[in-house]
Structures are given as structure tokens and as C-alpha cells.
Amino acid sequence: MQLDYEQKIKQLEKANRILQKKLERSESLRIALEETNEKKEALFLKVIDELRDSQKTLEEQSRDLEETLKKLRAMQSKLVESEKMSALGVLVAGIAHEINNPVNFIYGNINYVTQYAEEILELLKCYQEYYPNPVITIADKIKKIDLEFIKKDFVQVLQSMEIGSQRISEIVRSLRTFSRLDEAELKKVNIHEGIDSTLMILQNRLNSQLGCLEVIIIKEYGNLPRVECYAGKLNQVLINIISNAIDALEQKLNYSQHTYSKTNGLATLQTATFTPTIKITTELINNWVSIRISDNGIGIDEKTTQQIFNPFFTTKPVGKGTGLGLSISYQIIVETHQGQLECQSIPGVGTEFMIMIPLQRL
What we know:
This protein has 362 residues and is an alpha+beta fold. Among the domains are: 100-182; 186-257 and 275-361, Heat Shock Protein 90, CATH 3.30.565.10. It has helices spanning 2-130, 136-145, 147-179, 191-201, 203-208, 231-263, 266-273, 302-305, 325-336; strands at residues 187-189, 216-220, 227-229, 277-285, 288-295, 340-346, 350-358. A five-stranded mixed β-sheet has the order 2-4-5-7-6. A hairpin with a 2-residue loop joins strand 4 and strand 5. Helix 1 (2-130) packs antiparallel against helix 3 (147-179), helix 2 crosses helix 3 (147-179) and helix 3 packs across helix 4. The protein starts with a helix and ends with a strand.
């Protein structure tokens, strides 16, 4: 009996050891499984983080690509505009050269023609004094051609021809100054000549675009030395800004006329008292040349003012503006000339652009 009991105890102890080993193996397997799960979870979280980082990087690259494409588009458009201006300069210079030669020939000979005409009229006067009663044939001819009128009008015609040819010479000179093909590089120039040539180029718009109202140009030129700049590019800036000023004056006049149609005569007084004016002021400020161009046009609000130098931004109707004029102007002044271009405007009152360029290259 005792022996059976001991045998059973041994069997139980053996079974317990076997069970203990199984439990230890199960625990090891459980720990290993937990570690595997933790590794899988950590790996899964790592993959998720990497995917998030990749998504963020992709979004940043997409934004950079979009911004780069926008810059490339703006640069391409600016290059096209620059090429247009360059081609225009070549065309203008060629026309000016071709016109200049015959105009000089005409203008140079008008003085001789005037002198000859005066001498012929003086000779005719002598004939009339010494032969006051010509034969009937000559008397009829004098009456038919109205000799007295011809004598008065002949000199006036020659004077008007002289004034006209002089005007053409001034226009040709302005065209040559505006194109500045010989000044594509950095060179010291007279800023006022560039402004005057730009106004001459825009004379047609200044005189005829506002109906019966002529744009008043006020020049307040300071005593400026010759300025080191890219004259052709600077003239491009001037024509952009002054053209915009004319547009603003037109818009204000159109607004007044539109108000007139709605208020039964209210705009009559507004139009009568509105004098379209562009004022150009130059001065030297601590070795910086200041050019201020202001108008009393429609004006623009602050939100628009903050965007006007952005490429492709325009407030003009489709087909009337590319949105590149002021953007190119900003690039020419700020980047090319290391200067400043600022705009201040009050809606309904007017706008002023201020150009600041160093007297000499920095």
C-alpha cells in the first residue's frame, strides 16, 4: 500500500514537471508572440509615419512645382513682352531713320524757298509800282487767280510747312530717343529727355482719347545730373505708368458720364469741373533720382494696390491688359536698376507712382 502511494506521488511529480515545462514553453511562446506583435505594430506605425511624411513631401513638391510653373509662365510672358519691345524699338528706330532723311531735306530747303518767295513777291511789287496798269490779258489773269490773296497766303503756307516739318523732326527725334537702341547698355543719360519723348509718343492719347477734354501735363523738373541707367528699359517703365494714368483718367470720365445717364444731369457739373491732369515731378534726393507720376483719375483701393505688381494681375477688361506692364516695370526698377517702385492711391482722388533709382550703379 505504501509502495503504491509513493509510486503515485512520483507519477504526479513527473506529470507536474511535464506540465510545468509546457507552461514555461507556453509562456515563452506568449512572450515571443507579444514581442512579434509589438514589432509588427511598431513596423506598422513606422510605415504609417513614412507614408505621412511622403504625402507631406509630395504636397510640398507639388506646391513648389506649381510655383515654379507660375514663375516660368511669368518669365516666358515677360520675355515675350521684352522681345516685343525690342522688336518695336528696332521698328521705331528704322522708321525714324527713314523719315529723318527726307524731313531734313524738306526742312533744310524751306528757308531757301521762303527767301525765294519773298524776293519774287518783292519783284512783283516793283512791277506793280512801275506798271500799275497792265494790259487787259494780265489784268484778267490777276483777277482770276486773286493775286492779292495769293500774296498774303503764300508766305503763310510756307510758314505752316516750316512748322509742320519742324514738328515731324521733333517726333522723329522723340522716336529715336524712345527706342534708345544705342543705349541698351548702362549709360549716363538725361532723364527729362526720356520723359519728354514718352509724352510725345503718347501725344495722340493725351489729346484725343478723352473726347473734348485735353489732358493737362504739369512738369516740375528738378535740376538733375545725367543718370546712369538702362535708358530703353526706363522709357518702357515710363510709358507703362503714363499709359495707366491715361486709362485711369478715361475711367473717371466714363464713370462721370455713366452717372450722368442715371442721375439726369448730375454728372454735367462733375464733368465740367473735372480737369484730367498728369503731374510729373523729378528731384535729386541724397544721390537718388526720384520720379513721381501722379494723376487725378479713378484711383484704386488698398487691396488692389497690394497686388498691382504681381504678374498677370489686371483690373482692365479682357483684351485690354495683359497684367504684365507693371510687373515688368517693377522688375526693371527693382532688379535691373536696384531701385524702388511704389504706388499710393485713393479711390476717386487719384494715384501716384514713385520711381527711385540710384544716381550711379550701386
